[in-house]
Amino acid sequence: MKRLFTAHASRRWPLVSVGLFAILVVALVAITDSGEPVNTSHPFGSASFSVFDQGRTGLPKSLERRLPPAPRSIRWSEAHRLVGIGPKVWAFLGEDELCLLGQEGAASITVVCTGRRRALEHGIFIASVRDSSMSDSGPVREVIGLAPDSAGVVHLITPGSKSVTVPVDHNVFIWRDDVPASPLTAVLARR
Questions:
Q1: Could you read off the pLDDT of 141-162 as tens digits, one per residue?
Q2: Which of 35, 75, 114, 120 minimizes the number of CB atoms within 10 Å of its CB?
Q3: How large is the C-alpha radius of gyration of the chain?
Q4: What are residue 104's phi and psi, to 5 degrees?
Q5: Which band of pLDDT confidence, cut at 50, 70 and 90, is reported for residue 172?
Q6: Strands 153-157 and 97-104
Q7: Global pTM?
Q8: Residue 128 belongs to what H/E stretch?
Q9: Apex 184 CA angle, 180 and 188, nearest 5
Q10: Residue 173 carries which DSSP code?
């Protein structure tokens, strides 16, 4: 160990630094395939869920005040609103997890989170099922979720019902029907 601090070692230090920098640059270029910059703020999300490349919208302050502390590495202030889908749904990306928050009406708030691996294999969704006896019009079940860029369709599996195939558009999938049960899981597939 003492040799590292000799005059000879100090002359080699700039060469070692340049060599390590070159290895780092080559590794980053190899990882990005396309040559585009890597978004380091979201370790797995930007490469797999392009919806997070869009700007953050945040949550309304009135909603944020009603929420408990965010799970693990999630920050409520870094919300991404999923627009054009009807109900209010936001997506959150942490270091190793993905969460969805749905607000239906003034009182109902749903938060679901999943780990990185599960998000990449199955996506993530929020399902709401209403009592069909309460109203005769409209769907009974609504499923809103995110799937990674590699998915073209999602197969929603619900015990006791036929699976349904839902197209994915810009990472988002939406399904409404009269099945009175939440899906058990989602299976991703390419188109």
A1: 999 999 999 999 999 999 999 9
A2: 35
A3: 22
A4: -120, 110
A5: very high
A6: unpaired
A7: 0.71
A8: strand 124-129
A9: 120
A10: E
